[in-house]
Design goal:
It is found in: Membrane. The protein is an alpha/beta fold. It has helices spanning about 1-20, 65-75, 100-105, 105-110, 165-185, 200-210, 225-250, 265-270, 280-290, 300-310, 320-330, 355-370, 375-380, 400-465; strands spanning about 40-50, 55-60, 65, 85-95, 115, 130, 135-140, 140-145, 150, 255-260, 275, 295-300, 315-320, 335-340, 345-350, 350, 390-395. Helices cover about 50% and strands about 15% of the residues.
Amino acid sequence: MVPCKSFSFLFLSHLILIYTSALPWSASADSAPLVPRKGNVLQVIVPVKTVFKEFVECSNDSNARGFCIDVFKNALSILIPKPTWTDVKYECYPIGDESYDNMINLLASRDDVDAVVGDVTISAARLVNASFTQTYLDSGIVILAPDEGVSQNFPGVFFAPFTIETWAILVVSIFLTGLALWLLEHNEQTSLQRAPSRAEQFKRIFWFVTSILVFFKRDSIRNPLAKFVLIAWILFILLLGSSYTASLSSILTVNQLSQKPLTIDELAAMNKTVGFQVGSIVEDYLKNRHNIKHLKELYNVTAYADALRSKQVVAIVDEIPYISLFLAAQSASNCKFSVSQKLTIAGLGFAFHDKDLSAAFSVALLNLSESGQMQTLQDGWKLSNFQCPSRVQSTRLDLKSSQGLFVLLGAAMFLCISIFMLKHLVIPCSIWSYAHFRENQRQDAIDAYWEPRLYASVRMFFSRRHDLLPGEMT
């Protein structure tokens, strides 16, 4: 019995070993070796950049450096299984005005290229000709725009809490409310209507509306509908005034008020020039997905700042790592830029021709992240996400945020004016029309009664005259 048990145990052990060795995640030294496409050298294409050289810099084929190269070398040192190549050869590829897509396509067009290492963003179009690793640096497209803000030293700071549209609608609301009160009170003998002229009445009405919260008016309003409009107006002013006070307080208690970041729809609606980094996927994203045609290529970090401050571009659309590097280079006093939320979710990865290579490097990149080495490399190259010094977000009231108050006031005025018109115009006109109709009916009845009789009498009179003899006529 003992030999049978031993044989069963050995059989099950071999089955488990065979099953686990077939799993894709069970990488070991016994797995198939990693082999380059030609010879014993791994051929790697590296982009030659003129901007953001912190990511990758390739001056000649033997001197490639940067954050991406450091990540690649660290991942190469912990690859499982061990590669068969004995050397790694870097080939500098001048990007110029080209897109990175042309560089990725080399993996398919050339039979000696094994990998593309650089700040390459993973996209759906690029997956056709390459096999990517998992992302080693989170990315995503954002919008960088100048943040002028509202300073507390600005002479018109007391107008800042409301937008121009809100101020305009507020002034119109004052006139409409005054007109509604004048219309509702025009038959009442109050101090508002006891004026020598219509112009004086209007003047008193508008003065009453604008000063209602400062001077208490005791018996100026008598009409119930006018009182209802007045209650709605007071509620409107109280709520709007509270919002104005809160917004103005936030402006006066901080050094600077940050404006709201731009959205991609607002950027497209502006129809102005937008900047982007030459060679990035942003150009295709703006042109084909959002139909933004006015684009300006930017070749270095200095061009970013100059283009924004000189208003050559209204905004710059780029990926988060590059925007972080640009903002980190700005001094605190000059860092007056707003950054939008992520427009896309993407990341940087290495591109390979062989899927086994990309899978092995993905495992190595995961190990680097879990061990903390990836964060150390990011901090060493100052690639951690960076923002300008935080400022208070803009709380200016626009029409969208305050439309509820205007709708409330407008609904109250519309309801009261409708009741007033119904009471003083529609109903009296209906009564007059009915009375006029009854009068016409009565007159028609009288005419219908007397007209045939009068006609018969006249005919009889003339008939009698014609029947007389000549000697009887006088």
